[in-house]
Specification:
The chain is an alpha+beta fold. The protein is about 45% helix and about 15% strand. The chain has a five-stranded mixed sheet. It has a three-stranded antiparallel sheet with strand order 13-8-14. Helix 9 crosses helix 10.
Length: about 425
């Protein structure tokens, strides 16, 4: 068992003494008072620059809060649907005091009572929701209650190869705005010999080409909050999936699959190697370009829509939460309030290059491409915060694959998604 989780009866008494001392204004031994520090156990699953960012945040927090000691513990693969250790710790009554947590999962965890309600703490400390992007606060909120404080975020835009645009007579300073322009550009850019693509202009379902991406671009929606009902079969979401299916037919899905199945990652990513002229992706792609292909002449632009306006995107990201049953919730709140505040997010953003969920922090971004990802955030969507959020994600992924392989009509497929998820949602 992790040593951070071993708490004896004697140490519980000691911790109680510390909490009383903290509340009465006593300092710690470093200040010469002899009082012990309150320890906050903090779980995360980060490595590399994101781990470094958290370490810098903890150091800055310690400088301002000498009476609290934050102990970071790395939990392998924590996040994005892999939180078994955290769930087990909560169920066993011995969770960490705070955790770095995928905002996407807040709804389902709050629904089963695994997270601490932070609403009153945020209100008492006058946490201003308007400082954060609306979608980020929405994703951290379940049924009107706040269960997490947002940290980083992302968005999705269309990357395109400017040199290849010039090569085929397209204006690299006027990338496609409409779906029709996107299709026309893709056709010009594609090079195919027999069944083999030497270069393909665009693949709607590749990279970040989820149904969420295109459903919102086509003006659809996935959840009716007032009715508490999933609307995967919204008419405009159906239109988006029909477009993806038709595209798959035009370029022969088996030939495209052969291309994508052999596509590499990192330095061998097809957009970096020049085998893919356009792709929908997030700001993380910029770091890969700088590392592996710094001379790539590329641009980023909003995801095309049918009408060439009302551009949008969707965003995810992480948050800080206090698990249900945390022993030192008050001290943990002080920490996550700092980490998710302007100072903490500034440290995280500067260290990792990730976008912040506080708009004023992103105003200092210098990189022109990264700046465009920040500029779309006020128009960005978040995935529905519902107890069946993970099921909806999985079913939409299955629906996309079924449609592009022509295994049913998009309308029927999406109706099935709505029925299945709504059935689970209303159990």
């Amino acid at each position: 068992m992790n040593k951070c989780l071993i708490v004896s009866f004697a140490s519980l008494i000691a911790l109680s003494t510390v909490l009383i001392g903290c509340s009465s204004g006593n300092g710690d031994s470093a200040n010469g008072t002899g009082a012990k520090k309150t320890k906050v156990t903090f779980w995360h699953g980060n490595t590399d620059t994101e781990k470094e960012a958290l370490e810098r945040i903890v150091k800055a927090f310690h400088e301002q809060n000498p009476d609290i000691q934050v102990d970071m513990t790395y939990i392998a693969q924590q996040g994005e649907g892999q939180n078994e250790k955290l769930l087990a710790a909560i169920a066993g009554g011995n969770p960490p005091d705070a955790a770095y947590f995928d905002r996407f999962e807040i709804g389902s965890w709050a629904a089963r009572g695994s997270l601490t309600d932070l609403t009153d703490k945020a209100k008492a400390d006058q946490i201003n929701a308007s400082d954060y992007y609306e979608f980020a606060m929405a994703e951290a909120t379940y049924k009107g209650k706040l269960y997490g404080l947002p940290n980083d975020t992302d968005s999705r835009l269309l990357y395109y190869n400017k040199d290849q645009f010039k090569e085929v007579g397209l204006d690299p300073e006027h990338p496609p705005k409409t779906i029709a322009e996107l299709e026309a550009a893709a056709e010009k850019l594609t090079k195919k010999t027999g069944k083999r693509f030497e270069r393909i202009g665009f693949i709607p379902w590749y990279d970040q080409g989820w149904i969420y991406t295109w459903g919102w671009a086509f003006g659809g929606d996935f959840y009716d909050k007032s009715a508490d009902k999933v609307t995967a079969d919204h008419p405009n979401v159906v239109k988006a999936l029909e477009w993806m299916r038709d595209y798959a037919k035009k370029y022969n899905i088996e030939d495209v699959a052969a291309f994508t199945d052999s596509a590499g990652s990192g330095a061998d990513n097809p957009f970096l190697t020049g085998q893919l002229s356009m792709t929908v992706s997030g700001p993380w792609r910029i770091a890969g370009i700088k590392k592996y292909k710094p001379d790539l002449n590329y641009g980023v632009t909003p995801i095309p829509t049918p009408t060439g306006d009302k551009f949008t995107s969707w965003s995810g990201g992480f948050s800080y939460i206090i698990p249900k049953g945390a022993k030192n919730a008050d001290a943990a709140w002080k920490f996550i309030k700092f980490a998710a505040g302007k100072d903490g997010q500034k440290i995280f953003s500067e260290t990792t290059g990730n976008l912040a969920t506080i708009q004023s922090v992103n105003e200092g971004i210098k990189d022109p491409a990264t700046k465009k990802f920040a500029e779309i955030l006020p128009q960005s969507h978040n995935r529905p915060v519902i107890s069946a959020g993970s099921l909806l994600w999985n079913e939409l992924s299955r629906a996309r694959d079924s449609a592009i392989h022509d295994k049913g009509t998009p309308k029927d497929i999406l109706q099935e998604v709505s029925q299945k998820v709504n059935s689970e949602l209303h159990k």
